[in-house]
Design brief:
This protein has about 200 residues and is an alpha/beta fold.
Length: about 200
Amino acid sequence: MIATEDQGALRIIRLNRADKANALTHAMLDAVAQAAATAWEAGIRVLILTGEGRVFSAGADLEAVGQGLGRDPVWERASGAIAGFPGLSIAALNGTLAGGAFGIALACDLRIAVPGANFFYPVMRLGHLPQPSDPGRLIRLIGPARARMILMAGAKIGAEEALAWGLIERIVPAEALMETAALLAKDALEAAPDHLAAIAGMTL
């Protein structure tokens, strides 16, 4: 349910469960963590995370939530592995992003999204807590009040508002999403690894 493709020093990690809106299971999150954690030593310099179909991810698989997935540390392992990647990470959001799947996108260096994407994290309504690292990352991107809009007021925001808030960097037509991500990756792929890692460290 996670497809990983290496193109030279570029690794594409694709959520591949379109029939279930790419809802995340423990196995999928573990696979994302492994793909990100092993990338740099394997010679990968850029990660692109995307999804199959018209939804990036509906969040946690509901059946898995009933089995305790919402409190599983695998969420933090996945987002932490992406955040700790020394190169460039890009979330190419092919559609709506919901719930715990936010952590994967928030951990990336850059986020681009298709025009129809919506963003929401309904933890208040569902009686859950967000994953531990997600609020801090969200606040750094959009500020505390807007983070509260999403986490506490249950706001669902569209791509245009997400761009205005700084949650995403660009809105891209669906047919150009991966091409745009590849163009954003070009300089990082051509740089010396130590140069790339140094600049990444300076921009934290």
